[in-house]
Amino acid sequence: MTRLIPETLTARTIIVLVVGLMGSHLLSMVFYFADRSEAVELSNGAHLGEHIATIKSLVEHAAEAEWARIVARVSAPHLRVRRAMMPPPRRLAPADPGKVPPIVHAVRASLERGGLREAATSVATVAPMPAPAGPSAARRAGGKTATTGARAEGARGEALLVSVPLRDGSWLLFTAPLGEEASHWSFRFVFSMLVMLGAVAILACLVVNRLTAPLKGFADAALRLGRDVHAPPLPENGPLEVRRASHAFNQMQARIQRFVEDRTRMLAAIAHDLGTPITRLRLRAELVEDAVQRRKMLEDLEHMEKMISSVLSFARGEAGGEAAVVVDLGPLLQRVCDDLTDTGAAVELTLGRRAMPYRCRPVALRRALTNVIENAAKYGKRAKVAASDDGDRIVIRIDDEGPGIDEALREHVFRPFQRLETSRNPETGGTGLGLTVARSIVRGHGGEIALGAGPGGGLRVEITLPRA
User: Fold this and answer.
1) Residue 301, exposed/middle/buried by CB under 10 A (0-12, 13-18, 19+)?
2) 385 Cβ contact partners less than 8 Å away, ≥ 6 residues apart
3) 438 and 372 in contact (C-beta within 8 Å)?
4) Domains, the chain, ranges and CATH?
5) Sign of CA dihedral 310, 316, 321, 322
6) Which tens digits make up the pLDDT trace of 200-239?
7) Helix, strand, or coil here: 2?
8) Cβ of 161: how many Cβ atoms within 10 Å?
9) Strand, helix or coil at 215?
């Protein structure tokens, strides 16, 4: 059931509005048509009663010899009139005598107002409509009781019968067809409802899209902030609530920027300040007479210098603020691999023929690729680099022929100053910042870097760089 519910706020709002409006509209139309039908019946009954009283008065004020001709002339399809010497016989009673149509009450009230109080009325089921009767037919019937008939069971026989006595003892018999109630579900009604619902849906879509646009802006801004802490702030415009939220988001982004900048400056300051005492220690180590101890001290100092140099390089890269430009990643990868090959590393590059344009910070991205490919060549004997472009993203895979890394330790190597001594050569002098810097740069471009098992049993590093 939940699969049928749309996920977007716009679609859910439109569905709620349309369903609610349709329900309220249908309910109001039910009440309207019910009241309207009763009002129409009461109005028709009043007019019918007045018409009957007028015909009765017209007949009695004319010469008796003209009565038959007048009756024949006033008879019409909507009200058939005939004269009879006897009232019509009582017909079968309706299934529910308590349900008397409103038009019957209206006719009775109108007849009483027209001075026909002497007419006794009753409800009865009538036979199918007879054909209009002429003077000869009128002379063949007669009686004394006035009868008001109601709806018949058969649709073709629905009629209202009214019998009115004349002063000579004869009767005027009125038969008014009661046609089937017209259906309210006409094409016009359905079309008007569809037009109204369509207009409401379009208007709701426009309004909700405009109201939810800030939410999309917040989501995009959060994604930009995750990739680039120096992303431009959100515009603080729109309704009051949106302005407040935008202002709070911009304040949060500014605090994060200050935190990152303070951290970077602190790292740079510490690394810089450590350079001087290390230099003094190196000079003092040269004065140590024990050759073995002197060699170990110099090796430790050299390792410390490399760590400090890596920290300074990392801090400069974080604070550099390099502008993003569009470059072809194919030549950039080629230069990285050529530089490493010149140093004696075994690097093999496979590229397609198509260009791979990508908007990035080229110096930072080149540094990240250099760190990853250099590690593969250094610790895995040989680095095999391949790149593919599927339009939405660029994937760079670096495979080596080394011992690989256990799955439980693959996240561990991304931490600063972490080295896997059991699986990597401890004599290489690495500082443990290479993969940390690489992942920071790749994530800064909105991408991701992951470690896995290579096809040849070594380690595979997969760098994914999305275009959006």
Assistant:
1) middle
2) 333, 337, 347, 348, 349, 350, 373, 396, 397, 398
3) yes
4) 9-177 (no CATH), 213-321 (1.10.287.130), 322-466 (3.30.565.10)
5) negative
6) 888 888 888 887 788 888 888 888 887 777 778 888 887 8
7) helix
8) 21
9) helix
